[in-house]
Amino acid sequence: MTSLAQQCSDDGENIPVDQFCELLESIVLLLRGMGSMMSTAFSDVAEKAEIMRRNKKFMLELLQKAHAISLNATIDEEIALGVIECNGDNNKKKLDKSKYISWEGTYNSTGRNLVRMWWLTKFLTKLLDNLINQHNLSLVSSCQDAYTAGFADHHPWLVRKGAGLAMMAAGQKEALIAKWGVTNVEEARPALEHFTKLRDQLHQLLSSRNLLDLP
Question: Which is it for the CA torsion 16, 22, 28, 31, positive or negative?
Fold first, then answer.
């Protein structure tokens, strides 16, 4: 996961789609190590990775874009095409009627999904920071603090309640470290550094295009 985080954060102007999607799937595996309830609470991460892959394939095959098209370029293309706010369910509210039966009618934008994955990087960097630097915090407290930093402001009460229950079942810090395949949590510090850099790059990508509040 550390290597993927580094690849994704090497160039903030050209964040690679394939490596970013692989990174998201690695995060899913990490969360599974924290118990079935935590895995369920973040079950849509893999789904969002698949949406981003599908959109890249669409850009390549139908719009004839370069194979190396980045997340940045994908989002710029979505803005130009007028589909950046589309989530697959709200498309009729966002599009002209003439586009309902075209590809735009069911499009689920990479930009909208990336906003949610930026929240995830905020959660993960705070979680790693707590585990590495806040030794007095339990895993449950570390997760709760990270959830507040990453997601709480964006989730309705019912979702926050469900996430809270999931985090109460996160388990023990030592058991999680063992499942991650490291002998000491300090070994995760390089991952924290790369995730922090990626978090800030995603924020810059989205904020520079006024996309932080995409519905």
Answer: negative
